[in-house]
């Protein structure tokens, strides 16, 4: 199915690996002109070159820390008129709330709430003026099914989702939608880092925790980064203009609720 993205300028944040890289590849395969941003210069350059070679799309790498104004400005300098923005970035490691001081909370808010809002602030008005925009925030199932050890993520990412809930109703009349994708357990480096944090906290073997988490999912497995990318691509599609302010769980059915 043609998603209507050919030639659309797109920004994908946190795109050097994992789900961000899979999203950049998916949009590039649809013909979008993708600007990929991440902090590591070598990593983002290599990822962009690989995707460009594979898809034949125009792909621009930008090394930038999106928690800073300078980093966000560098991305917009490379792609000043984006039609698509995918916000994605690292989370905070698991831990105990007793150990999280004010500095940890501010760092979490900068990474998972304020940086995405800063990117939205830079692109939303231009999208509305041009009459097309698709903004997708890669968040986490933790905003719907909180995990105690992920309290920093529970709080900061929920703040982003709450902000989007209001803004998305203001932008949609100009064909600018804002939605969220909530991944569950996905086989990525970030998931391995999360399990390593649980190993440090519990002393249990990595292989045991990894296998238990897969077995607890109704699918019996971890998700693939490409499955998350497909969900993001749906929200980016030209035909998705009547869907806004929504949070889509992509978690293999692990969330136990009806709604």
UniProtKB/TrEMBL annotation:
Family matches, as InterPro entries: NAD(P)-bd_dom_sf (IPR036291), SDR (IPR050259), SDR_fam (IPR002347)
Domain of life, source organism: Bacteria
One Pfam family from the record: adh_short_C2
Family stated for the protein in its record: Belongs to the short-chain dehydrogenases/reductases (SDR) family.
The name this protein goes by in its record: SDR family oxidoreductase
Organism lineage: Bacteria, Pseudomonadati, Pseudomonadota, Alphaproteobacteria, Acetobacterales
């Amino acid at each position: 199915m043609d998603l209507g993205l050919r030639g659309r300028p797109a920004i994908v944040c946190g795109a050097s690996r994992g789900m961000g890289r899979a999203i950049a590849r998916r949009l590039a395969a649809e013909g979008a002109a993708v600007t990929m941003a991440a902090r590591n210069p070598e990593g983002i350059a290599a990822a962009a070159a690989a995707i460009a070679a594979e898809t034949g799309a125009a792909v621009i790498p930008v090394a930038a820390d999106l928690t800073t104004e300078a980093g966000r400005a560098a991305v917009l300098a490379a792609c000043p008129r984006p039609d698509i923005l995918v916000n994605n970035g690292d989370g905070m490691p698991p831990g105990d709330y007793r150990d999280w001081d004010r500095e940890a909370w501010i760092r979490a808010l900068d990474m998972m709430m304020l940086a995405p809002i800063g990117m939205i602030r830079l692109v939303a008005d231009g999208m509305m003026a041009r009459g097309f925009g698709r903004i997708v925030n890669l968040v986490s199932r933790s905003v719907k099914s909180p995990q105690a050890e992920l309290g920093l993520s529970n709080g900061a990412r929920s703040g982003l989702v709450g902000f989007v809930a209001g803004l998305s109703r203001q932008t949609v009349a100009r064909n600018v939608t804002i939605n969220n994708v909530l991944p569950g357990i996905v086989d990525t480096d970030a998931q391995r880092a999360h399990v390593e944090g649980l190993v440090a906290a519990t002393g249990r073997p990595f292989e045991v925790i990894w296998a238990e988490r897969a077995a607890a999912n109704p699918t019996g497995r971890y998700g693939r980064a490409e499955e998350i990318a497909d969900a993001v691509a749906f929200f980016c599609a030209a035909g998705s203009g009547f869907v806004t302010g929504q949070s889509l769980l992509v978690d293999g059915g692990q969330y136990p609720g009806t709604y």
